Fold these 2 entries.
Entry 1:
Amino acid sequence: MAFTITLAHFCDKHGPRSIMCTQTTELSQMDQSTLPDFSKESYCKSCLLIYPKSTKGENVTTLRTEDTKTNHAFVSTQYSAIKFRVLNSIVRKCLSEEATIYDSKPMFFGDENRGYSMTQSFKIKDLEARGSERRYSFIVNCDQEHQVLENWDLIKDSILVMIEYLQKSSLKIELENSKNHEIYLRGKVQHSKSLIEMLKDDELFLKLHLWNSKLLRKLINK
Amino acid sequence: MLGRLFNNRSNEQLNSHQNSSINICHTMNNMNSLNTGNNIIEDLNSRTILYGTSNPILPININLSKFRLFIIQDKGELMVKNNFKIYYDSNITTTNNGTTTNKNKIDYNIFQFLEIMFGNSIHHDFQSNETIKIHNLESLQFTLISKHFNIKLSNQKKNLKFAIGLIIPCSIDLISTTITPNWQTIIHYLSIFQSIFIKNHLLNYNNYLDISIFYKNFIKNLKNLIITPRLLPGLNFINNNFFLKKWCFEINNWIEIKDGSKPCLVNGSKFLLTLLTIIQTVKYQLINNNSDEFIRIIIMASNSMVATKLIFILNGILPFNLKINQLNDGNIELKRDTTTTTTTNPISTGTHNDNQYHPPSPPTPHPMKKGWEIPKTPSKSITTPSLMTPCKSLIIQPNSSTNSSIPTSNSMSYLSSSLSSSSTNSSSTIFSNSLTRGFQYLQNWKNSTNNGNTGDVISSGSSFKTPSPGLEYDDYPWNSNHNGSINNNISNGYSTGSNMNTMNNNSIKFKKIELNSLNIKRSTTTLFKINNNISKNGIEGKDKFSQEFNDLMNSDIDYNYNYDSSKSVSILEIPFDDEDQEDSEDKDYDYKKLPKLCGYVQDYLPDFHIQACPNSQDLESKIISSMKNSLTQFNKSKTFLISLRIREIKEIQLTKNDEKRYTSSIRKIYYNSKPNLNYLNQDNYTKIEILFEKIRNLFKQDENDEEINKIRDYLKNL
């Protein structure tokens, strides 16, 4: 059983991209999951995993939470260093090959090669985005079909609370911005923008990592 | 009958996928029974001991007419208006002259969601040949399951892209109770549809009758899988003695009353010992079904309550981890379901003068001075006057108000079983005798019905659904009195919900318990939660998640740096903020798919591993048919057929030799009141013997909590 949780984004510039991938690894092998430094030239702010400003200069590539009780560590990186090809393919499938409905409702697809994925896709309103909205998807993948299906409600609800929070918070901030006449007038100018910027939360990805880690821990304990 | 069924068939050729491995004839017979009513017999007692809850388990309502199956090709012609070709649609009937009619008035068109189903037409997924997808279409209140496959024909340059779509009329909230617990069945049938389509319809058009037949059979099977409450195993292993005490009590009762064993006097028969040895041997296959063998335990019985007790006993040794840390032990009052308690005692005292309802009292461990006399041969055991005469006054007469269909079926089942036994003896004399005696019994029943016995109080609905133990000729009255006097409490062998809270037995005093304290939340197919702790703030499920997530988002995250010198990067180490609470984390999502085990059902259900059902003329043919069908998924199909009346256990086995052939074997594991030890696992036999000894000893002592715990420990290591 190897669950991964990927926050994917259909970037206006780069197409389907993985922003953050959280995966489980055994404590003894957690170094393998640490992502080496990589070129960020092909990333924009929209699709980049951005760490808090306080970490500037530290060359951070990996978020990690260890759990000695289960003897596992939960590691979040821009993309999976171990399953890059497969997960990248799943991100493309979810956001490009499938006719995704961005309604936060779960969709399931899978095959023997790429494992089985439950995806929940959603939009966040942003006047500075193409079409005034940015499209994201949480993808929970596992190589065993029954593991995804038997944890359907747990995964669905755990992901859904994240989506609801992100949408609600972004709407609140969007409403505040709409009162700003300057932003409203230049709303059609498209900019790359990270989730942390839209939600004005410097530690957003750290928190999402922690929540994903809790979900993975629950899935291990079951 | 089994002998006849297997005559000349042991090496019968399995033809193609669709006409041998799945029995079409049997399927066609079932076509008209799609809308049959609830097949389950349940009352407070059976709910409590089998399902772990005193509350009724409400079946999920599925509108069968809204199921839909269709097979479609994506032609890949993006510039053509109609890019999709529909090969089959279950909602459309094509007549002989080619006209089509809609069967059901459905307010949507398939083309509405074909793009969703197939995905983006431009960015095709060429990576896999077979993909499975689930879409939930909230606006239409249904779930769409689709299986996609590519086929390359010799005369075609490119792959042809097909999909089989299945619409199940359930909303997103019901997926985990309807679809995910039955996923294997759904996938299996989708594969069958795919095979049939490729083989019979890809190149040649015909009327798709074969697919229609399998489709209807699929709906029927799925419906049964969804609405039939499944057993909840593992309750003996939790730290609550209620179920374990009741289990020991029932085993002790069975050993003494049914098997006729007396301490230091009579050894009794080894029927239960044999049966539990079999269960012990195959218990992991019954629960997990991960092996290449499909095993069925089928108890043929007309008496639902006796069968329920036996299934409760069998269920007690099945391993099932409920993952409960702490549970209160007793001292809580059992909630009574007054609406159902009267229905659980449909037994007349057998005397015409006694028309009053007598509340059932708990069974005593020594109601008989002598054990039940086990017949030497099945045919004699049923009808010999020597056995029947002393019991004549005790034979429970059928209630005159009872619908005639039940006694008739009992009589027929009696005949059927006699035939079954006779055929194995190959003796026309025995056959004839059995038949004659069967008709005698039928005549006796008719006479007794005409006497107008209205001895007991049964609500009409439940009397119809719950056959009286008195109707079953073979089940010896539990409170046989060898002095010849009729015990007014003859029905007390059945501990119903009404007496469960007052159950006393020599040294065992059962504490009152409120089953709801276990906080078991379950559906027919799924255990959602079993925990006696109320979650913090009383919030559960998604609301609890939402609150936790909001708390997390509003908090500051602690982190520190860890430098990885080999990769020259830093790692942000973020500790869990709830490690101290982790152990007490509520099991809000302690979802468990329950194994396919059920209690007493009126009709045989081929998909379940354990069940009890009444005997019928075609039961054995149904079993053989379903065993053959199992060979499409498994290499072996094994059925332990238990006849309660003649105390016989037969093992029927089909083994697949190759794709087209199988061999069959039948052997009697328990016959003539003796087990055939050659066919039993000796280690397991000894283990169960020791278990029985421990249970017997339990009833000789005053304080037994410690002994109960020892039995639990023994069961855990069994």
Entry 2:
Amino acid sequence: MSKYYDIDDIIADEEVVSVIFQKAVSGVGIDPSSETDNVEVGSKVELPLWLAHELQLRQAVSMNVPSCFNQKTRLEIQADSACVNLRSRCPYFYEFGSKIAPLVSDRTIGPLLLSAFKSRYKEVLTKAHTAAFSAASKYPSLLTKEENNLYESAQSSMAAFKKWRMGGPRFQRASVLGRKRKPIE
Amino acid sequence: MSLLCPRKIQEEGLDVQTTRNGDHYGALIHHLALVRNKRCLMTYVYSRAEIISSLIWKVGPVLPHEIQEKLSHLEEDYFKKHSAALKSYMSRLDLDLTVDMVPPKDPYIQVRVLDDIGVVLSDDKTTNFARHSMHFLKRTDAEQFISRVGRPAA
């Protein structure tokens, strides 16, 4: 419940998963291939995760592993994890993956996420520190939302460190228009 | 709509308490969509409210017109009550919390005098504030002069 108001969590729940209906459903127009407002048993439909999750818990659908965790992506991550464009696959790769992992029978998603994150994290920090002031870098466009947050905070901490080492600004604005301290009695 | 119609379930010879037919799942999906929409709307209102209460720290207790016109009546009310609550808290503490958000690094600062003020007595010594002279002063002593002129000190 702590994430109820978390916008990123809401958007991550919006990723689509393909499911196969195990139960017939009437009165909803969620199957684009069906002409009526009914869904037959065995029809394959793309649903957002928030809906697929709840239906899976009630055994109304069975969930397939989403395409961003397919064999091709895995091979690319094994080859050179830092160069894989995870943003185009799924901007919420890790969040989505950890939501999906307990729901599907595939037990390898967890280790995949962990190894991908570990190897990419190193690269994120290195790039953020070395390319700190080249704004034209294309690197951030490969990162997921979460990695991008890390990248930006690494950059700003680096900038803050440099500023601190230079000794800070010589001129200060006089900020005495109010009184923070208690008046001395 | 025929959703959740017990008679239909009985006609099919099923148990009303435990049966899960197509209507049940249809209703379930409608309900889940409703809950989802509620969450999105609640989050929208909540994050706006968060921003509004942060405005008081960023722009102060009076909102500029271009922000004010974007708020709904309830939000304006929320802002007013929030700033009133903060104000009463600050007056009880006898502190203005909205100034000096970044703590000063050094209790002493170097100032350059912009106008002839003459000889001034501070706690421990007398200083001659001649024009363009430089002094190393306690921040609290210098502040009263800075705020009088309203210009930055070096």
